[in-house]
Amino acid sequence: xxxxxxxxxxxxxxxxxxxxxxxxxxxxxxxxxxxxxxxxxxxxxxxxxxxxxxxxxxxxxxxxxxxxxxxxxxxxxxxxxxxxxxxxxxxxxxxxxxxxxxxxxxxxxxxxxxxxxxxxxx
Length: 122
Fold this sequence. Notes:
Helix content: 10-25%
CATH architecture: Sandwich
Order of helices and strands: EEHEEEEHEEEE
Number of domains: 1
Largest sheet: 7 strands, mixed
Number of strands: 10
CATH topology: Hypothetical Protein Aq_1857, Chain: A
Structural class: alpha/beta
Number of helices: 2
Strand order of the largest sheet: 1-5-6-3-4-10-9
Radius of gyration: 14 Å
CATH class: Mainly Beta
Distance between the termini: 25 Å
């Protein structure tokens, strides 16, 4: 397991991606609603979508040996090694608007994205 603790220090360059306060807060709320403190948010990349790859989110109780773990505000984010190579440098955020609320991934490593916001090409 690769453990990374996100800090607010701009000089701390070990953080491979950004897990925003908004996203961590929403995950914490969802975990509390499920009444299961063992849950962690797993972010993954899989084949599919209109641009070749798509992002996915699921809750998981298990941390695999090769997962990267990012902890923020008491919430753990899990990323498997294959997905990590596509997510390095990305920002995982939670945004609310009049149209709805959703987790959003801003990925500077994506060559292109589609209008749905959940699909990209590498």
